Amino acid sequence: MSEQELPPWLKEQLARLQQLQQNLQAIMMQKQQVEIEKVETERALDELKKTTSDDTVYKLAGPLLVKSNRDDLIKDLDEKKELSNTRIVVLGKQESRVKENLKEVENKINQMVQMAQSGSSGNNAFNPSSSSPSHSLPPK
To answer: How many domains does one find in the chain?
Structure first.
């Protein structure tokens, strides 16, 4: 069965499946980036905590290093770390939701294809546009 022969209901579900896969990939990439930022923040915090309040410390501001207060930097990095943790949790929940939706769509596609195949061998009993309730599409 070529792509042009695919029924509209199957094309719609396949497009939905592809969109969910793209969303999942984007979420996973964002999550990975936030996890990298968190690790970098933790390393910076560890190094900063090794210094004393008498040591001169600098923070990066674009292409410049600017003299800064150690305690303020620790506070800022702690806040950044907490924000990263929150974002990781949120992205993890989004990832789980999208994975569940993916499974649902895959199952729906498999059911539709099986129904169509069983119908095509038996006098084309499966017809999504049929008004017969026994052959209607599963709910969206």
So the answer is: 1
